[in-house]
């Protein structure tokens, strides 16, 4: 982006997904990675970022009086990372490198409640959708995965007992699948930004 001072203003009409190639995990917490911190600082307009962590481990940016909340989610797989930023509400993102998984059908049957065998593409759509949703609500992956309701289609509807969120899919790079989860009522445009 040319004018970083307008990033937060753009979130009024758009949610942003940053794709970070050649990502290296340099800290224990992804949100303390220098690239992630720099991007979040651009949205906040300050390098002084403070986080709180929910009881389930979801990091959140602290806000000061008069400051709008800023919601974000981070995921990384291999050397690709994604950062989803929104002003709408809690969001979640997942990215996975696609490779054969010998027990994919066993996992799908146990955690996705799928009755028939699924192909690798469907497995990753279900996996990334569920993980993005769990990140959005601040849940625990294996504790909460089996109780999720999914309405599959080009976009997934997802929730516990009822559909409360939508999941959209994207390809951050060939050989990867990404899913982003936002509240069902969010009608914002999603802007994908490739980081150098």
- Categorize the overall geometry: globular
Compute the gyration radius: what is it?
17 Å
Q: Please bin the fraction of helical residues.
A: 10-25%
Helix/strand-derived class?
Answer: alpha+beta
Tell me what you see in this structure.
Helices cover 23% and strands 33% of the residues. The strands form three sheets. A five-stranded antiparallel beta sheet has the order 6-10-9-8-7, with helices on one face. A four-stranded mixed beta sheet has the order 4-5-1-11, covered by helices on one side. It has a two-stranded antiparallel sheet with strand order 2-3. It is of the alpha+beta class. It has helices at 7-10, 34-44, 104-111, 120-137, 141-144; strands at 14-21, 51-53, 59-61, 71-77, 80-86, 92-97, 148-151, 156-160, 165-170, 176-183, 189-195. The chain is built from five helices and eleven strands. The N and C termini lie close together (11 Å). Mean pLDDT is 83; it is low at 1-5.
Q: What is the structure about, briefly put?
A:
This protein has 196 residues and is α+β, with helices and mostly antiparallel strands. The protein has helices at residues 7-10, 34-44, 104-111, 120-137, 141-144; strands at 14-21, 51-53, 59-61, 71-77, 80-86, 92-97, 148-151, 156-160, 165-170, 176-183, 189-195.
Describe the protein's topology.
Blueprint: H1 7-10, E1 14-21, H2 34-44, E2 51-53, E3 59-61, E4 71-77, E5 80-86, E6 92-97, H3 104-111, H4 120-137, H5 141-144, E7 148-151, E8 156-160, E9 165-170, E10 176-183, E11 189-195
Parallel strand pairs: 1-11
Antiparallel strand pairs: 1-5, 2-3, 4-5, 6-10, 7-8, 8-9, 9-10
């Amino acid at each position: 982006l040319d004018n970083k001072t307008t990033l937060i203003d753009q979130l009024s009409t758009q949610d942003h997904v940053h794709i970070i190639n050649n990502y290296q995990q340099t800290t224990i917490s992804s949100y303390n990675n220098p690239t992630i911190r720099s991007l979040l600082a651009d949205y906040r307009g300050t390098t002084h970022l403070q986080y709180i962590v929910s009881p389930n481990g979801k990091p959140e940016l602290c806000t000061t009086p008069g400051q709008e909340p800023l919601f974000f989610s981070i995921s990384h797989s291999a050397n690709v990372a994604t950062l989803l930023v929104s002003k709408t509400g809690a969001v979640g993102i997942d990215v996975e490198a696609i490779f054969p998984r010998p027990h994919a059908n066993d996992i799908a049957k146990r955690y996705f409640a799928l009755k028939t065998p699924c192909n690798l593409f469907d497995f990753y759509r279900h996996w990334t959708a569920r993980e993005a949703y769990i990140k959005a609500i601040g849940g625990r992956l294996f504790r909460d995965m089996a109780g999720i309701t999914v309405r599959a289609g080009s976009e997934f509807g997802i929730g516990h007992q009822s559909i409360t969120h939508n999941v959209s899919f994207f390809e951050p790079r060939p050989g990867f699948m990404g899913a982003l989860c936002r509240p069902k009522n969010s009608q914002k445009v999603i802007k994908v930004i490739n980081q150098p």
